Amino acid sequence: MPDDEKSAASAARFTLAKRKLFSIFALTLLLLLILAALPLLNIQQSASLGLAAALLAVAAVAGWFWYTLEYELPATQLQAGEISHKESEPNREAWDQQPEIKQLLLTSNTRLENVLRQSPVAIIEWDLHHRVLEWNHAAEEIFGYSRMQAIGQHANFIVPEDTHEHVREVFRQFSLGNDGKYSVNANLRADGKRIVCHWYNGRILDADGKTSHLLSMVSDITLNRYYEEENRKLAMVVNLSSNIIMIATPEGRLEWVNSAFTAITHYTMEEALGRKPGQLLQGRATDPATVDYMSALIRQGLGFRDVEILNYNKAGQPFWLSLEVQPVLGNDHNVLHFIAVASDITTHKNFETALRFSESKFASAFRCVPDAISITRLSDSHIVDINDTYERIIGYSRAETMGKTSLELGLWPDIDEREQLSTLMRSHQTVNDFPVTTRIKSGELRDCLFSCTSFNVGEEEYYLSIVRDVTEQRAMESEIKNLNISLEERVHERTISLQQANQALASTLTTLNMAKDELVRSDKLAALGSLVAGIAHELNTPIGNSLMIASTLLDHAQDLSKEFTVGLTRSGLAKYIAEVSSASDVLVRNLQKAAGLISSFKQVAVDQTSSQRRKFCLDDVVAEIVLTLSPRINKTNYTIYTNIPRELELDSYPGPLGQVLTNFINNALIHAFEGRPNGQVSISAKVISDQTILLNVYDNGVGIPPENIRRIFDPFFTTKLGAGGSGLGLNIAHNIVTALLGGRVQVQSTLGLGTTFSLTLPKEAPVQADVAA
Description:
- By secondary structure, this protein is α+β, with helices and mostly antiparallel strands.
């Protein structure tokens, strides 16, 4: 053999060795994957073992066939090639005459035929146009076509029409050595049945390394897919179940839990696997006896059912389970698993607890209620239960009453009442407070109110009767009725007396109101009189001056007349004219002053004696008020300051407003400056909104004691009674501000520092009828 052919043979052996190692590794990995996938399929135990055995057998045969195609045949070809080179290097035509090569090839072909014939896996050889060249017995079993029927057929004859494009692409890819080596496809049998097959596809190369044929190994996995689908449905049903389902080892450690377990316990599957349920769910109030009972049965490999146990979820919240556990046995009767099914009965348990509590409350109420209660069976009218009050009121003991009827006990002195009550019960099923007369054990007749209602226990109907003894209540009602009659007579007499007293009070109130009005008028007249006196004093000076000047002018006129008779000189006339001009000027000024005083007096007098509404400037009204009070102020060391914006105009009642200011100023002169040689009153105003102003009257006097602050606006309240105070000034001011002017008045005072009266007034007073003050 030449050196290059020896090198090629060595390379072929090395490649063959690498392929063997890779194939062994791939086959081992395939087996491990199959074993690992079995638990994930959720197939039942027997089905799991059968499926595992079948898959292992298929894998073994496939591995044997693969080994033969991949290694035995190439090894045989390699040996044959080496022998051929050794035996007939000079003459290649002697190949067919070498018996050793023929025998080796014959043996290899025989092996290959046996593999093809005995393999449980369908083996199909294709040409490059995807037509069948070889078709073994397993392919006949899977697809239903005989070898003679299949040879020469295109691959589409076993492929559903809707997957032709997909299969064509698979063939194309693995022909090129790309994807498509493994695939799961839908196929058709000869009888038209659709099956699912697993395909392993490979290529057969020629001496040049090019694809000469295609080879496929096929396994029918339709049944496996059916089992997978059924087990998927079963797993879905188990996971959708509202009951907890658990699978545990013989030692009780969890292998699998469904979604209901997670939803109820709040433990995930990862947290639960490998742990015992008791480690996760038992808590402080779990019954130890129940736990010991379940543990003993599980240790014996036995199951149990309808065991109720209190558990706790991951958050520590309690819940109740009704538990059934059954073992899964193997062929040797050993326990392979435990399967537990638990239903959440927390709501049922809570209902039972509530029912017991309700029954306890009913029993307590039944025993303790202050009315006589009995339960009577309708079918025979026998009394089946009574409460303690029944024994006390009716007088019969429980032993004397049970199993008797009310007629046998003689409780109905008037049978007609019983018939009326029966008629009402038949028509209404419920009767409330029906008046009856009951004869108790002592023979005494008692007045009672009878109430009754029906209820069913199973198919038996009962009456619940309540008898309330109202004998004493009726006696009290009669007594109260008699008392009411007597009381009505006394009330009538008292009413007449009160009416007479009310008439006397009304007359007195009318007199007081008249006296109050008279005092108000007197107060106004007194203020007006003071005003007149002040004005008269002020007018006295200008009018007196005017009278003196007029007298002087009269004297000058008489002197001029005499001079005119004897002879008037030019200088005398000039002197007369100068004196008359000067006197006339002084006279005019004094008369103008008097006219101004009279005008102010007229306006103030009109405003203070009437409640006429008009538009006015606030500073003018305040100035007029101060002017009218100046005669009185000038006799003292007190001063009045004003600070009123010139443009501040009101549409209101200037007379009442002036009266308010006059009362505040007079109040200051009488009370604020007592014991002080001097003082001042300040009147200021400002706009606080588009519709409202604030008018303050402040004095720096002695202030008002706190105990008097809340009473200063009360009528007839004064600290100077009999010393110039009537007690109505501030009350009148308050009523004018709040009622007529539509504002409000507040007072703030600090002893030793002074007092401020604050008037909040609308720029436009409320509209109301003008009335005389």
